[in-house]
Amino acid sequence: MSCLETIQAYGLRSIGIGERLLPRSDFTLCDQFTLIGSGMIWNIYFGALALFIGFFMATGLALAKFSSNIWLRKPAEWFIFILRGSPLFIQFFLAYETFVLLPKVGVDINLGFAEITAETRWLTKAWLGALIVLFLNTAAYSGEIFYGALRSIPKGDVEAADAYGLTGWTRFKRIIWPTMLRLAWPAYTNEAIFLFHATTLVFFSGFPAWQQSGDALYYANYFADKTFNPFVPYPILAGYFILLTLSVITVFGLINRKLNRHLPQEQRRKMRIRPQFMR
Amino acid sequence: MFSFCADPETLSGLTWVSCYLTTGKHMGFYASFGTVMLLLLVTAPTALLFGFGGAMAARSVVAPIRWFGKSYTSIVRGVPDIAFFLFFVIALDQGIEWMRHKVKCPDWPEAVRQGNDFVVCSEAKMPLSSSAQWVHEIYGFSLAVLTFAIVFGAFAANVLFGAMRAVPRAQIETAEAYGMSRRQAFWRILVPQMWVYALPGLSNLWMILIKATPLLFLLGVEDIVYWARELGGLKTNAFAYPHPDWRLWYFLGLLVFYLVLTRVSEIALARMMTKLTHGQATTGGEAQRKAAA
């Protein structure tokens, strides 16, 4: 098979499109690059969606933890403590075992244009079950980061908002939330990078890879097992992940620039690794 | 364990539970908690040592050493740690066997890598196929520890490199003004002062290390995750203690274990930070001084 044919056969293999059988012998470099790259679809899917949904929940969690109302604060504190205090690996196992035990029922959801049946069976599949775990996990970590940022909003900013007569939702939307994001952004970038790394755990932690469609690490591990040579697939995986990390840094850097655009040049906070905020 | 456990069929209620929880397999489960703690206690200092070496290399004036140090410290930022775990366990194993092969069987006619096989002479196998089960287990565990140390060493190198740069430049300049050599200034001025800057990062690293210990399972060590899956799974009547699928409860137990472990560490590390900040020329030290006054 030429390399182009390989890409056609296996380029979307991880989402079930293309050749059914994985290559079994005579693995070429092209095979490995294509399949591992195809697996990256899952890593990007899990990482991007979990980050996006998690972002909103994290804002809510941070506000709840910052609130003076004990009924909001305590649940938020406990949620963050449990999800940050335990390994993601165990959370995956725990969630999977819980989802398996759920009764199998379907709920009809009317989307207006079409009717779909949401089934609890979906929760035992990686695409939904693992996504939920990753989403809750990143919400807890980012919630803590946002909470820290909320606490370090300069008092003067809030007082100025009060002086202008801004209250409630307007004050939050125009002063508190942007400032919180600006302060939290470098640490949040770290969180995003490590979340993408954490997506590699999914198919090693209970959630089965259905029809051998797994993520990049799943395929890298497949090749390493078959060829008994870890020196080719893992560096390929590393290359893909370095590219992914660089793109995350670029995108988050652009947002960082936008968040800081009103500040004088030398006051802008640089993006660099912050070891105290690694997950 | 207890004398009344001889015939599990006749037991019920609390006695059943007490017998169930003290079977030989459960003892293995409890012992595996010891494995986790052992891993933590061995890995932490080793990783710190690796990290210190990495940070020193990254600051070296010799360019090749500096490049090595820089790439070692930055690699963990780009690549998932679990990929390193899976890689190093095989790579280290093959590396060791390959070296032994070169030494012990220098006139072996065939290539070590034959297609999809990795073949070394039987004297070079590590551990030898004739050695006892416990040797295999110890070897597997040591490989896991080394792997953890390499990966977390890179994280620690990151933290320590940052901490070394955080020590005020004036301190080093003063040392130079007193006529200290580069080496003296490093060991006498920089190293004693950097810990307070390193501690927040290192505490976080300790937390990550705790939370990475279940990955031992992926490295083929019989750790707590292995036993939780083994013991919790559905047991039919063919077993002495039949029960439905209890994996959920076993994993809940593990969750609680980790929560306690991280909470205790958090409190201990906060105390340590208070101790280290005492009398330092940082905002933390200043706040302590004001609070006392």
TrEMBL record, chain A:
Report TM segments: 44-64, 76-96, 126-147, 192-211, 231-255
Q: Output the Pfam families linked to this UniProt entry.
A: BPD_transp_1
Q: What is the recorded membrane topology of this protein?
A: Multi-pass membrane protein
Matches recorded under SUPFAM superfamilies: MetI-like (SSF161098)
Q: Which UniProt keywords apply?
A: Amino-acid transport, Membrane, Transmembrane, Transmembrane helix, Transport
Compartments it resides in: Cell membrane
* Major place of residence: membrane
**What sequence ranges are listed for the domain ABC transmembrane type-1?**
40-255
Matches recorded under CDD domains: TM_PBP2
Domain of life assignment: Bacteria
Q: Does the keyword Transmembrane helix apply?
A: yes
Tell me which stretches of the chain form a coiled coil: none
> Per its UniProt record, what PANTHER family does this chain match?
L-CYSTINE TRANSPORT SYSTEM PERMEASE PROTEIN TCYL (PTHR30614:SF0), MEMBRANE COMPONENT OF AMINO ACID ABC TRANSPORTER (PTHR30614)
Q: Which family does it belong to?
A: Belongs to the binding-protein-dependent transport system permease family.
**Name of the featured protein:** ABC transporter permease
Q: Give the species.
A: Pseudohalocynthiibacter aestuariivivens
Q: What is the lineage of its organism?
A: Bacteria, Pseudomonadati, Pseudomonadota, Alphaproteobacteria, Rhodobacterales
UniProtKB/TrEMBL annotation, chain B:
Cite the InterPro entries for this sequence.
ABC_transp_permease_HisMQ, MetI-like, MetI-like_sf
Q: Which UniProt keywords apply?
A: Membrane, Transmembrane, Transmembrane helix, Transport
Q: How does it sit in the membrane?
A: Multi-pass membrane protein
Q: Which Pfam families match?
A: BPD_transp_1
- What is its subcellular localisation? Cell membrane
Q: Where do the ABC transmembrane type-1 domain residues begin and end? A: 33-269
Membrane-spanning intervals of the chain: 30-53, 74-92, 138-164, 185-209, 248-269
Highest taxon above the source species: Bacteria
> To which protein family does this belong?
Belongs to the binding-protein-dependent transport system permease family.
Protein name (Swiss-Prot/TrEMBL) = ABC transporter permease
- Please name the source species: Pseudohalocynthiibacter aestuariivivens
